[in-house]
TrEMBL record:
It is an enzyme of class 2 (transferase). It comes from Chryseobacterium pyrolae. Keywords: ATP-binding, Kinase, Nucleotide-binding, Transferase. This is Thiamine diphosphokinase. One of its GO terms (molecular function) is thiamine diphosphokinase activity. SMART domains: TPK_B1_binding (SM00983). Its EC number is 2.7.6.2. It comes from the Bacteria. Transmembrane segments: none annotated.
Amino acid sequence: MRDKVLLFINGDHPKTLPDPDQYSLIACTDGAFHYLKQLGFPLDKLDFISGDFDSHSGSDESVYQDKFILTLDQDKTDFHKALEIILEKGFTEIDVFGGSGGEQDHFLGNLTVAYAFKDKMNLKFYDEFSEYYFVPNNFKRKGVKNKMISLYPFPSVENITTTGLNWPLTNGSLSITSRIGTRNFAVEDEVSIQYESGDLLFFVGTNEIEYPSIY
């Protein structure tokens, strides 16, 4: 994972902290700084803390002020501004924790930011339940048998064909306004996805499932 970035943002904090030694750069937004402190994350390993600092407080944190990057542009979220900084530093492989949970408008906003950067960076989100990211139009993922798989069009996907799923698609279409592909599951170790046009979010569950639930 060297040459990869670990980025914490201000959603639900991870239940298990990733190994910081596997990353070349580690950053967080100002809101995430607080939960990292509470979780006992080694704050000295942070390369920078960015944001408008509307979520920041605590005089005992002054020791880390040399790592603060103030970003006041209110037309962009703290997540967006952190990605701009990371891109300027030359990194394109980013693991994001804290992208979901909390207020749902933040979650939807984070997906929109990820969409804006999808052609510049490889962003992967991790939370308690799943790993999710935008996938190219010819994609394969191994090691997923018996895991929940969701396909979410952003906002639509045309001529999509899948293999390895319990409910496969063959030259189908997905749309946020009509048909989406959530709550499927893998029946093979490898899942493949091909589609002609559009943009697709791919979710893979963290754990294997015994009794798939579809809703």
